[in-house]
Every structure is written in C-alpha cells, then in structure tokens.
Amino acid sequence: MRTDLQFSRVITARGASIFLKRESEMRWIALVFWMGLCFAVAGISGRWTAIEVTGWYRTLARPGIAPPNWVFGPVWTLLYALMALSALALVNRNQHRKRLALQGA
Predict the structure, then answer these.
(1) Using alpha carbons only, what angle is made at residue 86 by residues 71 and 31, rounded to the nearest 5 degrees?
(2) What is the DSSP string of 13-77?
(3) Using CA atoms, how far apart are residues 82 and 75, in angstroms rounded to an integer?
(4) Mean pLDDT, residues 25-37 taken together
(5) Contact 38/80 with Cβ under 8 angstroms?
(6) Quick one: pLDDT at residue 102?
C-alpha cells in the first residue's frame, strides 16, 4: 500500500518527465524555426543575387588562391546552419538566465 509521500513522489516524477518531454519538444520546434528562418533568408538572397552571377561576377579577375565555384554551395549551407544553431543557443541562454533570475539564484 502506498503512503501519501510515495504517491506524491510518483506524481512528481511523472510531472517532471512530462515537463522534460515538453521542454525537449520545444527545443526541436525552436530548432526547426531557426533553421527555417535562416534557410528562407538564404533562399531569398540566393534568388535575388543569382541573376548577377552570370553577369559581372564571371568577369571578375579572381586570384589564384580563390576556391573553385563548387565550394560555395556547401560552405554557404554550413554557414546558414551554424547561424541557426547560434541563434538557438542565444535564445536558450537568455531563457536560462531568466529562469535563474526568477528563482532568485
């Protein structure tokens, strides 16, 4: 037979589990949001500048150490993904600070 103390521990453990699950889901939603935002900006800016690549950009005298054209796609993709992760880390850090301030720590 359970005592009231044991019952409250079970409820608390389940509540903590639900809270952690919700927090984890919110992190995934935030990650998807930031990735979507960053790659939307990448798509809009890429479409906006794609017209100019065939024009004046091809006529530039590039130095010998310039990377080949195929490198730019993966590098820009990585940069936008890292921007999204940085934004997510910044938001999470600020939320953590707010929680600490509310708890009086």
Answers:
(1) 95
(2) HHHHHHHHHHHHHHHHHHHHHHHHHHHHHHHHHHHHHHHHHTTGGGGS---TTPPPGGGHHHHHH
(3) 11
(4) 86
(5) yes
(6) 64
**Under 8 Å between Cβ of 37 and 91:** no
Amino acid sitting at position 2: R
**Residue type at 30?**
A
**Token representation of residue 73:** 């796609």
Name the residue with tokens 């995934």: 28
Residue 40 has pLDDT above 90, yes or no: yes
pTM recorded for the entire structure = 0.62
Residues ≥6 apart with Cβ < 8 Å to 34:
84, 85, 87, 88, 91
3 state SS of 93: helix
Burial grade of 83 (CB within 10 A; 0-12, 13-18, 19 or more): middle
CA distance 105 to 97: 10
